[in-house]
Amino acid sequence: MFKQIKAIMKKELRDASRDLNSLFSALLYAVMGPVMLFVMFTFIAAEQKEVMENREIQIISQGSSQLIENHFLSQGFSVTDSSKIILYVSDDFEENISKGLSGSVTLKADLSLNYKEVMLVTRTLKLLNKTIAYQRMIARGVAPSSGSAIDIQVEDRNKVSFQSSMMVKMILIFITTAGLYSSMSIAIDMTSGERERLSLEPLRTQPVSERRIILGKLFVALIFAFIGTFITLGLDVIALSYAPVEELGIRIAIDFTAVMKVMILLIPFIISLTAIQIAITLFAKSYKEGMTYMMIFTLIVTGINFLPEKIMVGYSSFPYINELVNMKQLLTGGIDYVVFAPLSIFLHLIIAAFCVYYAALKIGKERMLG
Fold first, then answer.
1. Which domains does the chain have, with CATH numbers?
2. Element (H, E) at 260
3. What contacts 247, CB < 8 A, 6 or more positions away?
């Protein structure tokens, strides 16, 4: 049995090695994913740094605006006539403030280009508003604390920031789809591609059962899936070690130890997804049709990453969701060990076995030559 499966694997690996385009496309995604992460993190960090350094504002007023100018200067802003963010202060602003009335200001800027800078200016104005309100209360002999009947304090029980959570979610998308993209072209070529080239029928004339043919093809696809996933994880470690993640306030606990833990966690995950991949591509009648089906399937797998957190936690023992929850915890430092869910592993294996059974039936119905 194993000799026959090994023979099928050698045949498929030999065919795959001859097609350099398939090999290139199989490994391209595994390399491009970490590169895209590095570029994305670097770009976001540079953008935030530029916003923090570009604290410039132009203040225009016919009357006195010394109060506002001093406040912005104390917050690290520079008041200049060349700023693209202009604050128009009413002529009677300081007079109204001294009388306990409201002063009027108008902020003008191109929000499509300077949205983050405008939000920074707005927060600075709100701080001034709060400061003036406190000063008025003190002048009237009223403690500022009495202005609020309820003292609300929010403590986040989740050690992972929202920004870190979103960034980790993007990393998980690359990791969970790396195996699919790395084995996609090979799987399609071994199934619907061979059907299109009419080379699937001669394979059935050999003294090998349909189930062993499918297992041979599945093992070859798994080789590329595991290699692609490992490359993606390894390059993620390198990319994130050079990317300015700390400047973004993001904590991602990914190192080569975490990579090995994630790889162990992904074993049943990759096996079931690759088995589904073989079943889907074998259903297609041409390479192009197989590619269409696989792109839809990949989008579905990607969409699982965007399930609400409540669903993720509630169904954490289910396949695919279990791996996502565990990987997120591993990469954010929530846990330092792999938590296997027996139900998830069992269902992964059941799914893989069913796909092999279906694919064997499908290939058994192929029309023989002659």
1. 2-45+159-364 (no CATH), 55-146 (3.40.1710.10)
2. helix 256-283
3. 45, 48, 49
Amino acid making up residue 347:
L
Q: Model confidence at 356, in pLDDT bands (50, 70, 90)?
A: very high
Strands (E), the chain: 56-60, 78-79, 86-89, 105-108
Size (the chain), residues: 370
Could you report the per-residue pLDDT of 264-304, keeping only the tens digit for each?
888 999 999 999 999 998 888 888 888 889 889 988 988 88
Q: Tell me the C-alpha to C-alpha distance, in Å, between residue 350 and each of 127, 177, 353.
A: 59, 21, 5
Contacts of 154 (CB under 8 A, 6+ apart): none
Residue 369's pLDDT band (boundaries 50, 70, 90)?
very low
Handedness of CA 273, 278, 284, 289 (dihedral sign): positive
The average confidence (pLDDT) of the chain is 80
Question: Which of 245, 240, 251 lies closest to 334 in space, CA to CA?
Answer: 251
What pLDDT does 155 receive? 52
CB 251 within 8 Å of CB 325: no
- Pairing type for strands 78-79 and 56-60 reads parallel
> Residue 343 is encoded by which pair of tokens?
């139900």
Name the helix (H) or strand (E) containing 239: helix 210-242
Angstrom distance (rounded) from CA 91 to CA 86: 15
Mean pLDDT of 297-322: 85
Cα three-residue angle 168-169-170, rounded to 5 degrees: 90
Task: Specify the 3-state DSSP secondary structure of 88.
Answer: strand
End-to-end CA distance of the chain: 28
